[in-house]
Write a structure and sequence with these properties.
Layout: E1 2-3, H1 9-23, E2 28-44, E3 47-65, E4 68-74, H2 82-95, E5 113-114, E6 125-126, H3 129-144, E7 149-168, E8 173-189, E9 196-204, H4 213-226, E10 236-242, H5 244-247, H6 249-257, H7 260-265, E11 285-287, E12 310-314, E13 317-318, H8 325-331, E14 339-340, E15 348-349, E16 354-356, H9 363-367, E17 372-384, E18 390-401, E19 404-417, H10 418-424, E20 426-427, E21 437-438, E22 442-450
Parallel strand pairs: 5-8, 10-17, 16-21
Antiparallel strand pairs: 1-6, 2-3, 2-7, 3-4, 7-8, 8-9, 10-22, 11-12, 11-16, 12-13, 14-15, 17-18, 18-19, 19-22, 20-22
Length: 452
């Protein structure tokens, strides 16, 4: 492994570009630089299918002229082109329509200059391609060793390092980096039309936290074999239990509904629910950008506002919208540091390390009283009405019979209304941080199942 040394050059360039825009006539400006270096490999049946390394750096400039703003971006970090870039942005800003809600943060503390943090986001060692290939091959071999596995859809191992540099004429100069290691396996079991596929995946900031490749491969193999010879459940109303690898999808539906932009447009089924109970008592949803070695941890948001943990739902009661500066101004509120942006787009509300707090009972106890239900391990397709909360998704998994997992099932649909579902939602105690958006096993009673 080689040691990778960070550099602050992108931050210096971002600061220079923002200041140049101010000097050339912008009332305000901010600049974001996003860079990444990645190395990835994949193997299938022992043969290397992909070995790719990429390095990219993009720089985005946003200028404000009165109530007008414009964004330009470039992939060339060349000071000699900064004058032309600023001139282009200013020319665009003068002809675009006014937006009374756009602008840099005002009236709130900003990060100032921040170039280090205590979130432990950088593993300084960089793996070689040979090390990644060995990791992927070990993963695939473990999957093949599972009885019943007939083929491989491939194993992959990746490493990446990314940087974010943000500067603005409001005095912001922030910089952080993050590394990421990941490993995945997709295994096949059975033959012909009866073949089934399943997977396992893990991603971490530090390589030392990554699960053993043999464990990931074996899990993928066992998952595929367990899905052989599925049937369809009967059509009816019954409890649905979401496995942790799919239960985090419910968090995505929640955050879409409490996104400040959707609230400002009036297009969310939760638009009138602030301060009201939307989950059962005891349910908590948290967004924590300060989680040590978190996959989405960060010291500041896309507008230079310090990120702080938020308890979005406390004891079942909705506490916060997700706000950037623009959506906050539309709602007469103050941003809570949830802005996210790329180099060619304006900020928009987003989340960091989002999760349902775990409950107090085991998954086994959570399903122990279910005479007939479904346990969902994979979902596909999506029909979600953000305005009404109507929910319908295709699924596969296992029947629950008398409190135990039974035969595999596939090709059925789970449907309901998200507001009703949230109110009946129960959580187990098996929370594990694997995806950046995480949830334990979740049970929701009285769901509509469309099967045979």
């Amino acid at each position: 492994m080689t040691d990778s040394t960070p550099t602050l050059v992108p931050l210096d360039l971002a600061c220079e570009l923002a200041e140049l825009a101010r000097k050339k006539g912008a009332d305000a400006a901010d600049t974001i630089c996003v860079g990444s270096t990645s190395l990835g490999v994949s193997v299938r049946n022992g043969v290397t299918e992909e070995l790719e390394r990429s390095e990219t750096t993009d720089l985005g400039l946003r200028v404000f002229v009165g109530k007008r703003s414009a964004i330009v971006s470039t992939s060339t970090l060349d000071r000699g082109r900064f004058d032309a870039l600023v001139d282009q942005a200013l020319a665009m800003a003068h002809v675009l329509p006014e937006d009374g809600y756009a602008g840099l943060p005002e009236g709130i503390p900003l990060i100032g200059r921040l170039t280090d943090n205590t979130l432990d986001l950088v593993d300084k060692t960089e793996p070689t391609a040979e090390e990644l290939l060995a990791r992927a091959r070990t993963t695939e071999e473990a999957a093949h060793a599972v009885e019943g596995v007939t083929n491989s859809a491939g194993a992959s191992a990746t490493w990446g390092r990314s940087l974010v540099a943000l500067a603005s004429t409001a005095g912001v100069a922030g910089y952080y980096e993050r590394t990421r290691n990941s490993l995945s396996m997709s295994a096949l079991a059975g033959q012909g039309t009866g073949m089934q596929r399943d997977w396992d995946f893990h991603s971490t900031v530090y390589l030392s936290d990554l699960e053993d490749p043999a464990l990931i491969g074996a899990n993928a193999g066992r998952n595929a074999v367990a899905r052989l010879n599925p049937t369809q459940p009967r059509t009816g109303t019954m409890p649905v239990v979401y496995a942790p690898r799919v239960s985090n999808g419910l968090l995505g539906h929640l955050t879409g509904a409490i996104n400040g932009a959707a609230i400002a447009r009036g297009t969310s089924f939760l638009k009138e629910k602030m301060g009201q109970r939307i989950f059962a008592p005891g349910i908590r949803v948290l967004d924590d950008p300060h989680r040590q070695r978190g996959l989405r941890s960060k010291p500041f948001d896309g507008e230079g506002v310090a990120c702080e943990p938020l308890e979005l739902v406390a004891d079942g009661v909705l506490q916060h919208w997700l706000l950037d500066c623009r959506s906050a101004r539309q709602l007469g509120l103050t941003t809570n540091g949830r802005a996210s942006r790329g180099t060619s787009s304006p900020p928009s509300p987003s989340v960091s390390n989002l999760y349902f707090a775990p409950g107090t009972i085991s998954p086994a106890d959570l399903i122990s009283d279910i005479a007939e239900g479904v346990y969902v391990t994979e979902m596909m397709g999506s029909s979600i009405n953000g305005l009404t909360g109507d929910y319908s998704r295709g699924a596969s998994g296992f029947m629950i019979r008398n409190g135990q997992l039974a035969k595999p099932i596939a090709e059925f649909t789970v449907a309901g209304n998200l507001l009703d579902m949230f109110g009946r939602l129960q959580v187990a105690d098996d929370l594990s941080f694997r995806f950046g958006s995480d949830a334990p096993t979740i049970r929701i009673d009285a769901m509509s199942i469309a099967g045979n």
